[in-house]
Amino acid sequence: MLSRSIKASLGFLRPDGIQLTAVAGIKYFPPPKNYDHIEIPDRQRLRIVDKVPQYPPNLKPPKMQKRLRYMRGPETLHNTLQLKQYGVVATGGGRMRYEHFEMARLVVARRLDQKRMFAIWRIDPPWQPITKKGQGQRMGGGKGAIDHYVTPIKAGRIILEVGGKCEYEEVKTMLRIVAERLPFQAEPVSQEIMEKKAAEEKWKEENNKNPYSMKYIIQNNMGGCHKMLSPFDHKWYGKYL
């Protein structure tokens, strides 16, 4: 038998006098995921995008109106992960400039393990012209000159994807840094997270016991809400700006 002082030094006896017993058991560790089906492409990093779109030499760069509809509402096409792994998804609308492309590219280049990971863009390079007049100019005189180019983004658009032989926890910090520095709301996601969110949203719609939903209120003009709503609220029922 071990003495009280020896038990206390070995950790079997707590200061309050309760004796602890060490039990050896079989520990179960799940097998690691198999990534044999994943092929790493020749180019692992994000490619450099053009700051200005390339036009034919005989074509003058066209100017464009604001066209805010390009970043309003939900994204209906590029809203799923092609690689079925990890990425950054926009949760709100906005515009990406060339500086935001470079920020995302440099963050991914610094933190990406090129031996077993790769990243791809899911958005087009800047293509929409934004005009601006010089400071101090009078009103009139025609539309201003093109100042820079942007890429309009809708809610639900996948910005970039990361794939390879890696877990979500390995790339979560990198994707979070990119999402926080974008000019609109975004978040890092994985294929499991997106499937879980879609299932939760479907379950809420099917099991909603409150008949007075936003859609019902707007369609029936309850409280005369039509006077305070925009055409976009009648289309998306207050879900998107």
Summarize this structure as a short list of keywords or feature phrases.
241 residues; alpha+beta; Aldehyde Oxidoreductase, domain 3; 2 domains; four-stranded antiparallel sheet; three-stranded antiparallel sheet; 6 helices; flat
Shape: flat
**Low-confidence runs of at least 5 consecutive residues:** none
Give me the Rg, rounded.
27 Å
User: Which fold does the CATH topology of the largest domain refer to?
Assistant: Aldehyde Oxidoreductase, domain 3
Largest β-sheet summary? 4 strands, antiparallel
Report the strand count.
7
| Average residue pLDDT | 90
**CATH class type of the largest domain:** Alpha Beta
| Strand residue percentage | 15-25%
Number of helices: 6
Q: What fraction, in percent, of the residue positions are helical? A: 25-40%
Q: Largest beta sheet: what is the strand line-up? A: 3-6-1-7
The CATH superfamily title of the largest domain: Ribosomal protein L16/L10
Q: What order do the SSEs take from the amino end to the carboxyl end, as H and E?
A: HEEHEEEEHEHHH
**Structural class based on helices, strands and sheet pairing:** alpha+beta
CATH-derived architecture of the largest domain: Alpha-Beta Complex
Structural domains: how many: 2
Explain how this protein is built.
- This protein has 241 residues and is α+β, with helices and mostly antiparallel strands.
- It has two domains: 37-134 and 141-193, Alpha-Beta Complex (Aldehyde Oxidoreductase, domain 3), CATH 3.90.1170; 208-241, no CATH class.
- It is 26% helix and 16% strand.
- It contains six helices and seven strands, in the order H-E-E-H-E-E-E-E-H-E-H-H-H.
- The chain has helices spanning 4-10, 98-111, 168-180, 191-206, 214-219, 231-236, and strands at residues 86-90, 94-96, 117-121, 128-132, 145-153, 158-164, 186-190.
- The strands form two sheets. The chain has a four-stranded antiparallel sheet. The chain has a three-stranded antiparallel sheet with strand order 2-5-4.
- Helix 2 (98-111) packs antiparallel against helix 3.
- The chain is flat.
- It starts with a helix and ends in a 5-residue tail after the last helix.
- The model has no long low-confidence stretch (mean pLDDT 90).
